[in-house]
Design goal:
Layout (H helix, E strand, L loop, with lengths): L3 E2 L18 E14 L2 E12 L6 E8 L4 E8 L5 E2 L5 E4 L5 E4 L2 E9 L6 E2 L15 E10 L2 E10 L2 E9 L5 E8 L3 E6 L8 E7 L9 E6 L6 E7 L10 E4 L4 E3 L2 E9 L5 E8 L7 E5 L9 H4 L7 E9 L2 E8 L3 E8 H6 L1 E3 L3
Antiparallel strand pairs: 1-26, 2-3, 3-9, 4-5, 6-7, 7-8, 9-10, 11-12, 12-13, 13-14, 15-16, 16-17, 17-18, 19-21, 20-21, 21-22, 22-23, 23-27, 24-25, 25-26
Protein name: Glycoside hydrolase family 130 protein
GO molecular function, one term: hydrolase activity
Pfam families: Glyco_hydro_130
Length: about 350
């Protein structure tokens, strides 16, 4: 697979984004949803900020008070054995897998470009946490355009779990929040950009606790508000690059052979790569083919090294003829872009036996 990484990579880094308030610092500008709007390429950038700490032994956790809109800061000492600070992204109780606080709060900022290579970032947040289900932040937006409306699905994080928020805009100035779309634990939700046989479809990734694994499901709706007929779509593959967890990436796009979905997956060592799956045009619950090898893997220094290394994670792609422009987060830190051939991606698929 030929991969052309932009010479300007990383396109945006934390240093390119001004924090939304003086006592915070930007530690991540990554995992952006992407779309074309008028004559601009829009990246809806996930910006992760944390309170400035002058003491390296003090770990701080920002929490939104949804009633007042204010950010409260909790402080923890690194030597406190009650907690596990080994993951820089989260604070866990010692001996437990689930987190109790995040070390940063994420929201969305718009980055704009005329050429897709050089971006400027708006000064103010476009979408900021505000509800009781977003007190730990909002993350990883995806954008799907249906007619004149741009629909945004994203993760809402709070002490009661990670669910999927839903919002829409027509102009990337005014935005309407439609509440939680799918309840916890669920994320990596992407909307198909048109109705299929009278139905809207989404891919989503529930996280079962008793049995099952973090894998991709599909659901449908008549009205973009209420989702049902949930079906299992595709799962992990033992001894493959996608044997740890997987989820939908960019919004699916139509090809003559089917709906092509670019998905992310991690192996058991938490190395994140991108792959592709082909779904039936008339019934996207049918998987036709899938790549046996990643189409994009962390190899460049900015993909391997960062806040959480060995990660390429796309929330948006643009298609121009045979060119697929994959905009992707690197190492949970910055944004990059790579171009691949649509023909080569389709040729790399392995078709499933009927």
């Amino acid at each position: 697979m030929n991969v052309y990484r932009y010479e300007e990579n990383p396109l945006l880094t934390p240093a390119d984004v001004k924090p939304h308030r003086f006592d915070y610092e930007v530690i991540g500008a990554f995992n952006a949803g992407v779309t074309q709007f008028n004559d601009e390429i829009i990246m809806l950038l996930r910006v992760a900020e944390r309170p400035v700490s002058d003491d390296p032994n003090i770990i701080k956790a920002p929490v939104l008070n949804h009633k007042t809109g204010e950010l409260k800061v909790l402080s923890f000492h690194r030597e406190d054995k009650t907690y596990d600070f080994s993951d820089p992204r989260a604070i866990k109780l010692a001996g437990q897998d689930s987190f109790v606080y995040l070390t940063s709060l994420s929201y969305f900022r718009i980055a704009r470009s005329k050429d897709g290579h050089r971006f400027t970032v708006d000064d103010k947040p476009f979408l900021f946490p505000k509800t009781s289900l977003e007190t730990f932040g909002i993350e990883d937006p995806r954008i799907a355009r249906i007619e004149d409306t741009y629909y945004i699905s994203f993760s809402e994080v709070s002490p009661v779990g990670v669910g999927t928020g839903f919002a829409s805009t027509k102009d990337f100035v005014h935005v309407e929040h439609h509440g939680m779309m799918l309840a916890p634990e669920n994320k990596d939700v992407v909307l198909f950009p048109e109705k299929i046989n009278g139905k809207y479809y989404v891919l989503h990734r529930p996280v079962p606790k008793s049995t099952g694994a973090p894998e991709i499901w599909i659901a449908e709706s008549d009205n973009l508000r209420y989702w049902g007929n949930h079906r299992y779509l595709m799962g992990l593959r033992p001894n493959h690059w996608d044997n740890g967890r997987l989820g939908a990436g960019a919004a699916p796009f139509k090809t003559e052979k089917g709906w092509l979905e670019l998905y992310h997956a991690a192996d058991e060592s938490h190395r994140y790569c991108m792959g592709a799956v082909l779904l039936d045009l008339e019934d996207p619950s049918k998987v036709l083919a899938r790549t046996n090898q990643p189409i994009l893997a962390p190899e460049a220094s900015y993909e391997v090294e960062g806040f959480f290394g060995n990660v390429v994670f796309s929330c948006g792609a643009l298609v121009d003829g045979d060119i697929v422009k994959i905009y992707y987060g690197v190492a949970d830190t910055s944004m990059a872009c790579a171009e691949l051939s649509l023909h080569e991606i389709l040729a790399s698929l392995t078709y499933l036996e009927n």
